[in-house]
Amino acid sequence: MNNKAFFFLLLSLVLLPLYAFAVVSVGGWSPISDVKDPHVVEIGVFAVSEYDKQSKSGLKFVTVVSGESQVTAGTNYRLMVTVDGSIGVAGAGVSKKYEAIVWEKPWLKSMNLTSFKPTV
């Protein structure tokens, strides 16, 4: 095998894993380091409020426990939120955890709740 072919093969073997890692990383979820950040809390409050508007559940936001973000055509936020249980129903005042996914387009000042479900 001549030197050019060997060099090309070696270079390919070195760069291919780096390319594969970059492809997988784009659009992946990244942990949110500060869940007490006012913007993250605002998104959590929005998620619970929006879910309550749609379901009339009586859920009240307590805190964001953890979260991840994903850059798309905007930003998806997957937050684990703690809420107080339904008002006027057995179990009222009981804290529960939910996973909320909110899609935000900050340049349009737009947020959409795309998923809200109890955690197991």
Topology:
Layout: H1 3-25, E1 30-31, H2 38-55, E2 60-72, E3 74-84, E4 95-105, E5 110-118
Signal peptide: 1-22
Domain Cystatin: 24-119
Pfam families: SQAPI (PF16845)
Uncertain stretches: 20-24
The largest sheet is: 5 strands, antiparallel
Distance between the termini: 58 Å
Integer tally of domains: 1
- Percent helix range: 25-40%
> Could you state the order of secondary-structure elements as H and E?
HEHEEEE
Bin the strand percentage.
35-45%
CATH secondary-structure class? Alpha Beta
Question: Taking strands numbered 1, 2, ... along the chain, how are they ordered across the largest sheet?
Answer: 1-2-3-4-5
CATH-level-2 architecture: Roll
The tally of beta strands, per DSSP, is 5
What gyration radius follows from the Cα positions, in whole Å? 21 Å
Pfam family, one: SQAPI
Domain Cystatin: 24-119
Protein name: Cystatin domain-containing protein
Organism: Brassica campestris
